[in-house]
Amino acid sequence: MITLLIYLAPLAGVILTLPQELLPGLVDSAELQYGGIESGQTASDSTGTGASLSSLWSYSTVTEDRYDHALHGDQHELTPYFQDYDNTTNITAQLGSTAYLNCRVNRLRDKTVSWVRRDGSKIKLLTWGLHTYSNDARYSLSFEHPNNWKLQIKYTQRRDQGTYECQVSTHPPKVLSVRLNIVAPVVEIIDERGASVQEKFYKTGSTIELKCTISQMPQAQTFILWRHGDHMLNYDTSRGGISVKTDMSSSVIVSTLFIANATPTDSGNYTCSLGDVATGSVLVHVLNGEHPAAMQHGSGTKDLCSLSLVLVLAVLTTLLNTLHASHAR
User: Fold this and answer.
1) Could you give the percent of the chain with pLDDT greater than 90?
2) Burial of 312 (0-12, 13-18, 19+ CB in 10 A)
3) Which of 182, 246, 270, 320 sees the fewest Cβ atoms within 10 Å?
4) pTM for this predicted structure
5) What's the CA gap between 68 and 159, in Å, rounded?
6) For the chain, which domains are there?
7) Antiparallel, parallel or unpaired: β 131-132 and 122-128
8) How many CA atoms lie within 13 A of 119 on its CB side?
9) What digits encode the pLDDT tens for the residues 186-241?
């Protein structure tokens, strides 16, 4: 009897949670199956009724499924769905960085998530489940617990821009479309007035000051690299008097290079770069004696003299042609 009670205990819990309309059928069925079992007799000894504990357990399982259906409705409604449908459809990544395309799927169950690249009517499979099927090693599936089937694209290039789809293997498939935009930072070296400059003049003994601006950066980055030819200046301690100041107070990053006590050996090409993504350059001249402004002024004077000479020659040519015409008559 004690053994029978132990087996019937789980069934009692199920019965207590059933809707009232299901109770009569369950009671009748229990009476039918256990009516022929006498005291001290096990279910396996009963004959005639075909009753057994296993059949009763099967019945209780079916009843639980019906009860779950009564509570939750049609099981076809419990299909997978995207958690952040409206928030993950447009991604902007910086050229050369790592892009992450999120796809959070709830209630996935036995379905599979895949990523494809759509280019017009062409579709290219990138991942299926946890496996990567792209020949491009930059693509991989980076699953993030508990439900984010995240596509990772390393060292983004301009050709990576386009439409990607996260698909769930339902019938028909559920699709989350993600647009990836690739933005290349703009690097410029500017003068004191903020205008882009490609050449600058300094006097020996003065301080070289080069200002570099970086804009259109979707990902914050503070490391700006300065070079003089092939020589990196950011951590140069051999020359002395070199310093770099970076300001991120606005949406545009400004990096300023200072070189004290300039000499003619400091002349050459200077570059300001953001890794291998974008670079700006300026040609620096360090002059002995003559002030840069005087040099630029002298250059302007030479240009004016050349123009005057051309005008004089044109007038002389016209006069000679006129005299020649008069003699011909």
Assistant:
1) 47
2) exposed
3) 320
4) 0.56
5) 50
6) 2-77 (no CATH), 81-183 (2.60.40.10), 186-287 (2.60.40.10)
7) antiparallel
8) 8
9) 999 998 788 899 999 999 999 999 999 998 876 666 678 999 999 999 888 888 89
